[in-house]
Design a protein that fits this description.
- The chain is of the alpha/beta class.
- Helices cover 27% and strands 14% of the residues.
- The strands form three sheets. Strands 2-3-7-4-10-11-12-1-13 form a nine-stranded mixed β-sheet, with helices on both faces. It has a two-stranded antiparallel ribbon with strand order 5-6. Strands 8-9 form a two-stranded antiparallel sheet.
- Helix 7 (230-241) links the parallel strand 10 and strand 11 (249-252).
């Protein structure tokens, strides 16, 4: 089953918009009813237990989110470090997830950020618990955390940072490469699945065994995968490559466009790109709020709060390379239940393109507009 959801809103930060709408009950993409729809669709602290027990420096300590000035952004989050297939540390964030979740009825969902900003300001803006242990959302405070909203909707949300974003350090290439991101997400999904009851690789290979808790015929430990903006392209590639490790797919504001072909690097050059010095480019406040383009979609205060948090988590622009790997995206090769969410005034994801994306997903399968 494929579903398409649209609303009369342009591109806006997913986290800041969601919980603002959650509190104000305004009719936008992320009204509480939309979050409940997500919940039904998805349900139809550093943890080093998976790591070497030897003492070592944790990856987040080498990042902007590991500094005292940004540590408050992690309030209310459980922190995990997952080791990639090349040994690089990847930072994963959860919420109320430190206990044993084997047999939990909550569907895990992993969220991927976009081109420029870490998952922390995007999905957990102003989140965290108050002194009485309650979420600010319950106390009608200013939390705009999607993590908290989804938790209250009955899901078990997680989000991660790609290399060079937020709490995940850059690797020696100082670049962000799509296929590398896909492999990293695969490792994180495996970690989350094990946390929710997949005890071995054989569980992934034998998902129909009767001793695994299922919902709508899908093993309940398999995470759903949500990608926003450019993160939706990473999620899309993973769904094509390795669909058996996710339960469902959500493409929010995907920037997929069949008319866009990213150029490939030349086969021959007199310059060695790997030896070229990497020059950092600072992010700016104006860049952090440039997505807020539709009047009335967000007030100045939450937009400014997002910009301040975003600059703390990502003071420098990430260096995306080999975008030509996105040319391999083919909606017809997606064969998992998928929800496409788009704003009809989103300048980066026009409805005509979203409709084409939706219409070509897993051709021959039922879909609902």
């Amino acid at each position: 089953m494929y579903c398409f959801a649209s609303s009369s809103i342009g591109r806006t930060n997913i986290g800041s918009s969601i919980n603002m709408n959650y509190k104000r009950r305004s009719v936008r993409v992320f009204h509480p009813s939309t979050i409940k729809i997500w919940s039904r669709l998805l349900s139809s602290r550093f943890d080093t237990t998976q790591q070497n027990s030897k003492s070592r420096t944790l990856g987040i300590e080498k990042t902007p989110l590991g500094t005292p000035s940004a540590s408050h952004l992690l309030n209310g989050l459980d922190l995990y470090e997952v080791t990639a297939d090349d040994g690089h540390p990847l930072t994963l964030y959860g919420i109320k997830s430190s206990s044993d979740l084997t047999g939990s009825t909550r569907r895990p969902v992993l969220m991927l950020h976009g081109r420029t900003w870490s998952s922390v300001p995007v999905y957990h803006l102003l989140g965290g618990e108050a002194s009485d242990g309650k979420f600010p959302i319950e106390k009608m405070r200013k939390s705009r955390s999607l993590m908290e909203a989804l938790f209250h909707a009955g899901l078990q949300p997680y989000c991660m940072d790609f290399r060079g974003f937020g709490g995940t350090p850059a690797d020696k290439t100082n670049s962000v490469i799509p296929n590398r991101c896909v492999r990293d997400v695969e490792k994180v999904l495996e970690f989350v699945a094990r946390k929710h009851g997949a005890n071995s690789d054989s569980d992934q290979e034998n998902i129909n065994q009767t001793n695994i808790l299922k919902y709508d015929g899908i093993p309940h430990h398999l995470p759903a995968l949500l990608g926003w903006s450019q993160g939706a392209l990473i999620a899309h590639l993973l769904a094509q490559k390795n669909p058996q490790i996710i339960s469902k797919l959500i493409l929010y504001g995907s920037i997929y466009d069949p008319l866009v072909s990213y150029p490939r690097s030349p086969l021959y050059s007199d310059k060695n790109e790997t030896d070229a010095q990497f020059h950092k480019i600072e992010n700016t406040f104006n860049a952090a709020i440039e997505d807020f383009t539709i009047e009335g979609s967000i007030d100045l205060e939450p937009a400014s709060e997002f910009a301040e948090a975003a600059l703390l988590s990502d003071p420098y622009k990430a260096n995306w390379q080999y975008l030509c790997q996105f040319n391999n995206i083919d909606p017809a090769r997606v064969h998992v239940p998928t929800l496409v969410v788009a704003g009809d005034q989103d300048p980066y994801a026009p409805i005509r393109v979203q409709a084409e994306l939706f219409g070509n997903l897993g051709r021959g399968v039922d879909r609902t507009w």
